[in-house]
From TrEMBL:
Occurrences of domain Amidase (ranges): 27-473
Pfam families: Amidase
Family to which the UniProt record says this protein belongs: Belongs to the amidase family.
Catalysis: reaction(s): a monocarboxylic acid amide + H2O = a monocarboxylate + NH4(+)
The protein's name in its UniProt record: amidase
EC numbers, comma separated: 3.5.1.4
Entry-linked PROSITE patterns: AMIDASES
Gene Ontology molecular-function annotations: amidase activity
InterPro entries: Amidase, Amidase_CS, Amidase_dom, AS_sf
Span of the signal peptide: none
SUPFAM superfamilies according to UniProt: Amidase signature (AS) enzymes (SSF75304)
Enzyme class, UniProt record, top EC level: hydrolase
Length: 496
C-alpha cells in the first residue's frame, strides 16, 4: 500500500480493507512505520518505539472493529505490560508495567496494532509538550509551534500522517487542546464513561478521562462504543446511549439551541483569531438550521480556576511523591515547573482541598442551569493560536528565584509569591475555556473548523450536559460534512 492510499482512509476504512482481505496488517504497519521514520526527526512525537510488539500483533490473528489498524498509546496512564509508562519524566523510564490497563486491553481486543507510545509533558501537567527528558514536540502545521498538551505527541503523530487515531487523555483540556492545535477532532467523555482501572478508580476526582484523538469523527464514534463499555470494577455505571455511538455519524441532530461566548472566564485577552473561529462556527450553525445566540453560564471563572488549580496541584504533589518513593529519584531529576507546582500543592491543607473540591458542585450546578436553556455551550478551544515552542518557559531570573525557594523548601513562599500566581495565570490564559468540562464532568468536543490567516488550525469547543456524547458526535459529524477537514494536510506532508 502506498502512503497516499493509507493517508486517504480513516481507521474504520483501513479496518474494512483488512476485513475484506485487500491489505494485510503487516502492510499497514510497514506504511505507518515508514512514515514515522520520515517525520519523527521533525516532530519528536514518539517517546517509546514498540516495533517488536507491532510486528507480533500484525502477524495475527486479529479480531475487532479496528483489526489491523496501526495505533499509538499516550505515554501517560496507558500501561502496556512489560513496557514503561514514563509519564514524560526520566525517573519512570525504567519502571515496567506488570499488566495492561483496562483501556489498553480494550484497544488490543479491538484489534489495533500498537507499535509505540507518544510524548507527553511531565505528568501531563502543562498544555505544551516540552520536557527536559524528551525535548520539544512540534506541530506538523508549523514546526515552530506547539501541538499542545498533554496529548501533544499523539496529536502530532496523527497530523503528520503516522496514524489516523491515537490514544489520548484529558484532565484539563489535554484532548481538546491538541485537537485544536493540530486540526483534529477530540472528544472528552463525561465523568465515568471511560474506565481508568484497574490500578485506580478515577483520576483527579474524576476530572480526568481517557480516549482518543482522530482525524475524523467516525473513528472517535466507533471507538467510543468500545471505550464506554461498563467496567464491573469501576466506581460508576457507564451512562451509555441506547443507540450505538457509531450511528451518531449517520443521524443529523435535531435543531439545537446553542449559547456561545468568546470572552475568557479569567478576564484575560482572547486573540482575534479565536473570536473569528467562534463567530464563523456560529454562522455555520445558523446555516445548518440551529438557533445560536450569545450566552454563558453564570460562573466566577477566576474562582473556578483557583479551585481547579488547588486540586490539580495537590494531585501533582501526590504523583511526584509516589514517583520519588517508587524510583528513589531526587527532586532535581524532575522539571522545574513540576517541582514548583508540586511544592505549591503540598501547601494546601486537607480542609482547603476538600473545600475547593466541594465548590466544584457550585460550578456544576451553574452549568446545568445553563443547559436547562441551551443544548450546548460554544466557546473557543484556545484563547490564541498554538503557542511558539518555548513560549511558556519562564525567564531565567524567575527560574532562578523559584529554584532558590525550592532549595530552601519554601513551598508556602512559592504559593504566596506574586511570581507563582503570574506563572499560573500565564499558563491558564491560553487555555481558559477547557477546565470547566473537567470540573463539572461534562462531555465536550473540539472541532477543527477554523484556520488562521497564516494557516494554523484553531479549534472551537462545544460543552454538553450529562450524557450528551451522542448529541455531540451527531453535531460534529454534521459540521464535518458541511465543512470537511480530514483531507487537509500540513506542510510536513511533503517531507520525505
Amino acid at each position: 500500500m502506498r502512503y497516499d492510499e493509507y493517508r486517504a482512509r480513516d481507521a474504520v476504512g483501513l479496518a474494512e480493507l483488512v476485513a475484506k482481505g485487500d491489505v494485510h496488517p503487516r502492510e499497514l504497519l510497514e506504511v505507518a512505520s515508514a512514515r514515522r521514520d520520515q517525520v519523527e526527526s521533525h516532530i519528536n512525537a514518539i517517546s517509546l518505539p514498540m516495533d517488536e510488539v507491532g510486528r507480533a500483533a500484525a502477524a495475527g490473528p486479529l479480531e475487532g472493529a479496528f483489526a489491523g489498524v496501526p495505533f499509538l498509546l499516550k505515554d501517560l496512564g496507558q500501561d502496556f505490560a512489560g513496557y514503561p509508562t514514563a509519564s514524560g519524566t526520566g525517573p519512570l523510564r525504567k519502571v515496567k508495567a506488570d499488566k495492561n490497563s483496562t483501556l489498553v486491553q480494550r484497544w488490543i481486543d479491538a484489534g489495533l496494532v500498537i507499535f509505540g507510545k507518544t510524548t507527553t509533558p511531565e505528568f501531563g501537567a502543562v498544555a505544551v509538550t516540552e520536557t527536559r527528558t524528551y525535548g520539544a514536540t512540534r506541530n506538523p502545521w508549523n514546526l515552530e509551534r506547539t501541538p499542545g498538551g498533554s496529548s501533544g505527541g499523539s496529536a502530532a503523530a496523527i497530523a503528520a500522517g503516522i496514524v489516523p487515531m491515537a490514544g489520548a487523555s484529558d484532565g484539563g483540556g489535554s484532548i481538546r487542546v491538541p485537537a485544536a492545535c493540530c486540526g483534529l477532532f477530540g472528544l472528552k467523555a463525561g465523568r465515568g464513561m471511560v474506565p481508568a482501572g484497574p490500578d485506580v478508580a478515577e483520576s483527579i476526582f474524576g476530572a480526568a478521562t481517557a480516549g482518543v484523538l482522530s482525524r475524523g469523527v467516525r473513528d472517535s464514534a466507533v471507538m467510543f462504543d468500545i471505550l464506554s463499555e461498563p467496567d464491573p470494577g469501576g466506581p460508576y455505571l457507564s451512562g451509555r446511549s441506547a443507540q450505538s455511538y457509531a450511528a451518531a455519524v449517520e443521524t443529523p441532530p435535531r435543531r439545537l439551541r446553542i449559547g456561545f461566548t468568546h470572552e475568557s472566564p479569567l478576564g484575560t485577552a482572547v486573540h482575534a483569531e479565536a473570536v473569528r473561529a467562534v463567530e464563523a462556527t456560529a454562522a455555520l450553525l445558523e446555516r445548518l438550521g440551529h438557533a445560536v445566540e450569545p450566552a454563558a453560564p453564570h460562573i466566577d471563572g477566576r474562582s473556578a480556576a483557583q479551585d481547579f488549580m488547588t486540586v490539580w496541584t495537590a494531585n501533582l504533589a501526590a504523583k511526584l511523591a509516589h514517583t520519588r518513593k517508587l524510583t528513589g529519584a531526587a527532586d532535581t531529576e524532575f522539571d522545574l515547573v513540576t517541582r514548583a507546582t508540586a511544592a505549591a500543592g503540598r501547601t494546601h491543607s486537607a480542609r482547603a482541598l476538600i473545600d475547593s473540591h466541594g465548590r466544584w458542585n457550585t460550578y456544576t450546578r451553574a452549568l446545568a442551569e445553563f443547559h436547562d436553556t441551551y443544548d450546548l455551550l460554544l466557546t473557543p478551544t484556545l484563547a490564541e493560536p498554538p503557542l511558539r515552542i518555548g513560549q511558556t518557559k519562564q525567564p531565567a531570573a524567575v527560574e532562578k528565584i523559584m529554584t532558590l525557594l525550592l532549595n530552601l523548601r519554601a513551598g508556602a513562599a512559592i504559593t504566596r509569591s506574586p511570581l507563582y500566581h503570574e506563572v499560573v495565570l500565564a499558563n491558564l490564559a491560553p487555555i481558559p475555556f477547557t477546565q470547566l468540562a473537567n470540573i463539572t464532568g461534562r462531555p465536550a468536543i473540539s472541532v477543527p473548523l477554523h484556520r488562521t490567516a497564516d494557516g494554523l488550525p484553531l479549534g472551537t469547543q462545544f460543552v454538553g450536559p450529562l450524557g450528551s456524547e451522542f448529541l455531540l458526535l451527531q453535531l460534529a459529524a454534521q459540521l464535518e460534512q458541511a465543512q470537511p477537514w480530514a483531507d487537509l494536510e500540513p506542510p510536513l506532508a511533503a517531507t520525505g
